[in-house]
Structure formats: C-alpha cells, structure tokens
Amino acid sequence: MGLAAALGVRAGETVALVGAGGKTTAAWRLLRELSASGQQVVFTTTTRIFCPRETRLLLAARPDPIEIARWLAEEPALVLAAAHGERGDADHAARCPYPADPVKLVGLEPEVVGDLARALPGVTWLVEADGAKGRLLKAPAEHEPVVPVTADRAIIVAGLGALGAPLDERTVHRPERAAWLLGVPAGTPITPALVARLIAHPAGGLKGLPPRAAVVVLLARWDGPPRDEEAAEVARHLLSETRIASVVQANLRAGEAVVLMRR
C-alpha cells in the first residue's frame, strides 16, 4: 500500500506531522507520491527544515495565495517557508531525504498556514510541525508542537529503531521529560508498551493536536528486517486510545506501508 493511502491522506487536507524518527522523510515521500498522482501539494513547516536544493521553493512570511496557485499550476509540488534562517549541521543536512543545503528555513506562523489552506481548498498541505534533532522518539516541550488549528489530520511519527535502546539522549529528544511522563528512570530499555504510552500521553504524542484532526500513528523504520511483531504490539497497546484513528507501519526508505489498526 502507498504511504498516503495507508495514512488516509485525502486531497485538500492540511496534514501536520509531529513526533520523531522520520517526519521529514514521511512528508517528502507524501509530497512526491501525491504530486505524482496529480494532486497539488505544498510542503511547509512551522518550525525549521533544511533548504531544498532541487525543488521549487517560495520564501515569504505571508505568501500570496494567487502566487502559490500560479506556481502550482506550473509544477504540482512546492516547498514553502518564511525565510532563510541559521546555518545548520552539514552532516544532518546530508542525511536529509532530499538534496539540501546546510541552511535552515524559517517556518510559517500556524495562522498563516491556516489562512492559506482556506484560500486554496484544493491544495494538500504537509506541515512539519515539530522538531526532534534527528532522534527516534521525543517528549514535547511546553512550546511544542506548533500545529495549525485548521489541521485535518495529525500524524504522530515514532521510530521503531528506538525499541530495545535505553531511554537516553542518543535515542530520545528530551529524555528526562519522557522519563518523567512515563514514570520510569532514565536509561530504561524502551519497550513497545513504553512507546505506546509516550505516543498516547496527553502531554506526549497527543499534546497540542486540534480536536478536529484525525490522529494517525506512523511507526517508521528504515533498512533492516521488519519489526512486525513489535509494531503490532505497539498498536495493541494503543487500541484503548479512542483519539487514535489508525496505526501504520512503514519502511520509509522503501515506501512500503501496512495498516496495523484502523477504527
């Protein structure tokens, strides 16, 4: 199954990606998949992303919807941000899912994204609304995530590679906060149950998501053997969380996606 179909993404939706372990790669794969199917798609952020080198880029703090529509009429995939920002880590930029310069782009204000989505109802908006500094899991700070209130769909990303690793700064963004939310000591081995609890915690994965948004969990993996049993166990633990509409496992490098749970 394609990633967009597995995640339930529909044309014209505003889709916010939060969490850790593959947000940018998932957004980029969705951008390519949806634009190849004929949809007009914008990839943007309310935080920071690396500057793409080979994809059409429009920089404006308050973009003109007419200009966006004109650009999308020429090519259906567009990256949108407010401005160039600080220089980023070159090694991190080299691992980006698209060719990127080691310069961060400043994100749009969430209200601006909402206004643009209302002005361009046929466009699908992919919004990277969280940061995790390359870690596989995260616990959000007070100011995170930065999700537009108009989001139709929120995708909580979690990296399956964290399973079996200790809950520390190498694997988890803000590990002390994650340990506090979960009620376990720092360094505790990460289990499927802990991943599910962090995702479903109102101050964890579910924090700041608009009530109107359909919530989907994306359990992301890369190369290596499938982790079907562990992913299925995470999904089973999430069955009691009525806010979560579905759980999907995907190999983001290969593009394979499997729906593990759907209400």
What can you see in these coordinates?
With 263 residues, this protein is an alpha/beta fold. The chain has a single domain (3-262), classed as Rossmann fold (3-Layer(aba) Sandwich). It is 27% helix and 29% strand. It has helices spanning 3-7, 23-36, 65-74, 90-94, 110-119, 175-182, 192-200, 228-238; strands spanning 14-19, 41-45, 48-52, 57-59, 77-81, 83-87, 100-106, 124-128, 137-138, 153-159, 172-173, 214-221, 244-251, 256-262. A 9-stranded mixed beta sheet has the order 4-5-2-8-1-10-12-13-14, with helices on both faces. Strands 3-7-6 form a 3-stranded antiparallel beta sheet. It has a two-stranded parallel sheet with strand order 9-11. Helix 7 crosses helix 8 (228-238). It is globular and about 50 Å long. The two termini are 18 Å apart.
Short description:
This protein is an alpha/beta fold. The protein has eight helices and 14 strands.
Topology overview:
Blueprint: H1 3-7, E1 14-19, H2 23-36, E2 41-45, E3 48-52, E4 57-59, H3 65-74, E5 77-81, E6 83-87, H4 90-94, E7 100-106, H5 110-119, E8 124-128, E9 137-138, E10 153-159, E11 172-173, H6 175-182, H7 192-200, E12 214-221, H8 228-238, E13 244-251, E14 256-262
Parallel strand pairs: 1-8, 1-10, 2-5, 2-8, 4-5, 9-11, 10-12, 12-13
Antiparallel strand pairs: 3-7, 6-7, 13-14
Helix pairs in contact: 7-8
